[in-house]
Structure formats: structure tokens, C-alpha cells
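User: Predict the structure for this protein chain, please.
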Amino acid sequence: MISAATEEIKNLTATEGGNITLPEPVMENGFVSFERNTVATVTKREVEIFKETYTNKLHCDKNTGLIKITGLQMSDSGIYTIGSKGRNIFIISYNLTVYDPVQTPAVNTVSVSTDSCILLCSVDKTETTLLWYKDEEILNQSSSALSLPLTVHKQDFNSSYRCEASNPAEHKTLHVNITTSCRNNADEGGHSPDTQRYYILTGVIMAVVFVVVLAFLVHTVKKKFHKKSETITSQAQGRYYFLFVFHSLLYDFLYVSVFHLDHTKCEAQ
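Assistant: Here is the predicted structure, written as C-alpha cells:
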């Protein structure tokens, strides 16, 4: 039992939108105050609310006598005092701090090489502490940055890694699968991202060169074919002209021969 003249202050933490239960029960008659202003009284575990903002927000468990505050907001941070006037007389104050909910961290692979891997753990809110664990050992931590890098060496790829985001009220953890996030795929018949980028770039360059060479060859072949067509056309025209001249000379020769023969017959008669 604590004397009424003695006031004990304990720290409590909670997250916005969550609930908080004050640890000390009020079994008979008592009160609840916030920043030295009475917000409710408790009589035989029944609550009478004096402040409208605590209606449907402050409750007393009829079985345990514990005071519970629900639907917490940032403005609910402050000093809460509960007192009991029954056989167990006490006054206890709680310094409640309401925090933003902790975001589950995200882990991305920054780079992979043959002997190491760089991972980046990140969150969106600065009021969060980030920690990198290898098995149960803390490797790196930051209490203000939005992101926290970690270099994992090849000899440690078989260890267990996780990133934790926390504030005084709660923490959330993300376990990292090194096999999929960090292992050098070259050991498994694949290629690291750097190697893959090299292969892609090389393939693109080779494709461009192939297209240029192919276009040049097509142009050259078409040009030669065009010249050959012109040559063939010229040759054909020459042959046609020769045949025409030959045919004309033959016709003239035959005509003259026949005419001369007829003329000779006529003279003989």
C-alpha cells in the first residue's frame, strides 16, 4: 500500500489508434484524472465520465478493476493519475506518451558482387530506430535516418538476417531471405545484376551492329543487282538491234536477188 501523501510516476507508451491499460486496478471507489483534471470517478467498478471526450473511451473492467483507455490519439499524451479511496488507498500517476504506429521496414538489394552484397532497410518516418541483426547480434543501427545499409559478405550468406523498426511503443521486424535477396546468382549458374546488365548492353550493341551490317549488305546487293540488270538490258538491246539489222540486210538481199531473177527471166522471153 502506498500512502496518499506519496505520488509515484510511471512511464507508459502506446501507439496512435491503439489502447492502453493502466496497470493498477481500482477495486472499490476511486478516480481518474488527466493533467490534474478529474475526468471520471469509479464506484464499485462502475465509471462515471465527467469529460465528454472520454465517453466511450475510458472503461473500467468489472472483473479486474483495471482502467482502459481506447482509441488513443497523439493529444492523449500526458499525465494520468488514478486513486483509490477504499481499503487499498493509493495515488499513482502515469506519464503516457502516444507514438505513431511503427511501419514495417522494407529491404531492397542495392548491389551484388561475387564476394559481397549491400542491402538497404528503410522506412518513411524519421521517429523510428532501425536495427540490422545477424542472428541475435546487432550489426548496425540508427535512431534518426530513414534508411540503414548493410554489407553482407559471402562467407556470411548462410547466417540469418533481419531488419527491425522500432519506437518506444512497439517494433516490427522483417526477416531477409539471403538466398533470394543477396546470394550471388553466379554460384548457382546465373549472373549477378551487374553481369546481367553487361550482357544486356552487349546484346543491344550486337543487335545494332547486326542491323547496320545487314542494311549495308542489302544496299550493296540491290546496287549490284541494279547494275547487272542495266547490263543485261543493254546487252539484250544490242542483240535485238543486231538481229534487226541482220534481218533487214537479209530481206534486202533476198528482195534484190528475187527481183534480179525475175528481171532476167523477162529479158530472156
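DSSP finds two helices and 16 strands in the chain.
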